[in-house]
Design brief:
This protein is of the alpha/beta class. The chain contains ten helices and twelve strands. The strands form two sheets. The protein has a seven-stranded mixed β-sheet, covered by helices on one side. The structure holds zinc ion (2 copies). One zinc ion binds next to loops.
Length: about 290
């Protein structure tokens, strides 16, 4: 029935984990963040409501865990109204086909992310030579081939609204990937940032393992456009979020978040942009 759905040929389990793996945090009454190995999924909806949305779909082979997290929070046999993606990297769509098969729900992503989700285009190869960290070095094994979600995936509405989440709007935050989006709710300034920025130095195996909280730009090995990535952080900083759930690392709130974002913006070249790597133009850094 759903036999037309497929992962890429390079799809596989990735042996990386963290101390937070399997841990869930209620960041706000209707925002629940759960860590799958090294990546976060987010359940949006009050625990006592029937309606909820899943943001991102975890690592490969984590569908059982995601389903049980959802059922624990929303009740047995509960299912989300939709799965909405910040972007299509393997660690954010790792279990999406099993989830679609189990729940039979639509998926939404930014239009520019569609080629990677409909079998048309691979992501650029991760940069294993980029400055910093064992995760960058092991990124050679990360799946980049397109998955194919067929008719199950649809582009997000052009007007900035987010299906089933009327108080949120999506914000285009490219750089880490072309169709990367964040989700923002004005009334309480809650931000779901995806990988536009993260709160852990995702390139370093040890820091990923301990999840030491530290603002960082998008994960380096997969980021291909640093100028766009900077503009995206600028956009998000201007929103003055009160709480941020990022794709990697523990959620950050309040003064720490605001101060950290401001620092990231001011020192983007030092904190985020690698000193070398195949997606960094040499000329940009030659004066350093
Ligand atoms: Zn990513
Ligand atoms: Zn990621």
């Amino acid at each position: 029935m759903k036999s037309n759905l497929s992962y890429g040929e390079d799809y596989k389990f990735i042996p990386a984990t963290s101390l937070e793996s399997g841990v869930g945090t209620e960041v706000l009454p209707d925002l629940y963040c759960h860590t799958i190995q090294i990546v976060n999924i987010c359940l949006v909806g009050n625990a006592d409501a029937n309606n909820f949305v899943l943001i991102d779909a975890g690592m490969p082979h984590s569908a059982k865990e995601i389903i049980s997290v959802a059922e624990k929070r929303f009740g047995e046999n509960s299912r989300p109204q939709a799965i909405i993606l910040t972007h299509g990297h393997f660690d954010h769509v790792g279990s999406i086909i099993e989830l679609i098969e189990h729940w039979d729900v639509p998926v939404y992503a930014h239009e520019l992310e569609m080629p990677f989700l409909t079998g048309k285009m691979s992501y650029p190869k991760p940069d294993t030579t980029v400055e910093g960290g064992m995760v960058s070095k092991m990124s050679a094994i990360f799946p980049i081939d397109p998955i194919n979600l067929g008719d199950y995936v649809q582009p997000l509405p052009e007007d900035g609204s987010v299906p089933h989440l009327p108080k949120f709007r999506w914000i285009h935050t490219p750089g880490h990937s072309p169709g990367h989006v964040a989700f923002f709710r004005e009334e309480d300034k809650a931000l779901i940032a995806g990988d536009a920025f993260v709160t852990v130095k995702q390139e370093y195996l040890y820091k990923v393992f301990t999840q030491e909280q530290e603002i960082s730009g998008p994960p380096r090995y997969l980021t291909t456009d640093w100028e766009a990535a900077f503009e995206s952080v600028r956009k998000l900083e201007a929103l003055q979020p009160s709480v941020a759930i990022t794709g990697h690392g523990v959620p950050m709130t309040g003064e720490l978040l605001n101060g950290s974002l401001q620092q990231l913006l001011e020192e983007f070249d030092q904190i985020a942009v690698p000193d070398y790597g195949k997606y960094v133009e040499k000329s940009e850094k030659s004066n350093g």
